[in-house]
Amino acid sequence: MGQPYDVRLVSFDAMMQPAHRALHPFGQIPTWQEGGLVLFESGAIVLHVAGRHPGLLPDDAQARARAVAWMFAALDTVEPPIWEFNMARVLEGDMAWHAAREPMLKQRVHVRLSQLATRLGDADWLDGGFTSGDLMMITVLRRLAGSGLLEQHPTLAAYVARGEARPAFGRAFAAQLAVFTGQPGHEG
Questions:
Q1: What is the pTM of this model?
Q2: DSSP per-residue codes, the chain
Q3: Rounded to 5 degrees, what are φ and ψ at 59?
Q4: CA geometry: angle at 58 spanning 56 and 63, to 5°?
Q5: Structural contact between residues 50 and 56, judged by C-beta atoms closer than 8 angstroms
Q6: Residues near 172 by Cβ (< 8 Å), separated by ≥ 6?
Q7: Domain holding 150: CATH number?
Q8: Is residue 41 part of a domain?
Q9: What angle do CA 78, 84, 86 make, to 5 degrees?
Q10: CA-to-CA distance for 53 and 186, rounded, in angstroms?
Q11: How confident is the prediction for the chain on average, in pLDDT?
């Protein structure tokens, strides 16, 4: 959104300490601090920032409500089966029973991806122009990178590619890379 921000890295150990738990009661990331306001959960942070700066929420009240609904759909409907599939690969991939369970997990992901692809159709974005709903949905779909599942839904693969091609994505990705390489400047 073109707004300056600072990034503070938090180790896994620090995430469990009282100082971080005061910001995020579940000891996770991300957190957002702005003056006296502290927020946790990606969706809440994106909604807050989008509501304060133009660009991610439409001016029209109904379109704005639909953008928020797509944010919730990304996090509450599309992400859970993707998260379960990814966590099973990471945490259970070497277990003997994982091979028998994996097709069921993939099927759950494919059901959601098929439903989403049908809804998207040949549109560029979920509801008119790019919104916070697209931002969250693309972020969720990017969790499938390297799995081969997204590529089985060309409509969605193209949708994610459009999102990644946006200049704001490039700036945010560069800023995140700068954090990890020690370069100054974080404008997203």
A1: 0.89
A2: ---B-------HHHHTSHHHHTT-TTS-S-EEEETTEEEESHHHHHHHHHHHSTTSS-SSHHHHHHHHHHHHHIIIIIHHHHHHHHHHHHHHTTSTTHHHHHHHHHHHHHHHHHHHHHHHTT-SSTTSS--HHHHHHHHHHGGGTTTSTGGGSHHHHHHHHHHHHSHHHHHHHHHHHHHHHT-S--B-
A3: -70, -35
A4: 125
A5: yes
A6: 188
A7: 1.20.1050.10
A8: no
A9: 100
A10: 17
A11: 91
Residue of 21, 49, 47 lying closest to 34 (CA atoms)? 49
**Beta-ladder partners of 4:** 187
CA 46/CA 3 separation, integer angstroms = 13
pLDDT at 161: 97
Full domain range(s) for residue 81: 61-168
Task: Say yes or no to pLDDT of 187 above 70.
Answer: no
Residue 173 in domain: no
pLDDT for the residue 79: 97
Inter-residue contact 75 to 150 (CB < 8 Å): no
Determine, yes or no, domain membership for 126.
yes
Would you say residue 11 lies in a domain?
no
The encoded tokens of residue 175 equal 């800023």
- Residue whose pair of structure tokens reads 């009240």 in the numeric block: 61
Tokens of 112: 């959601």
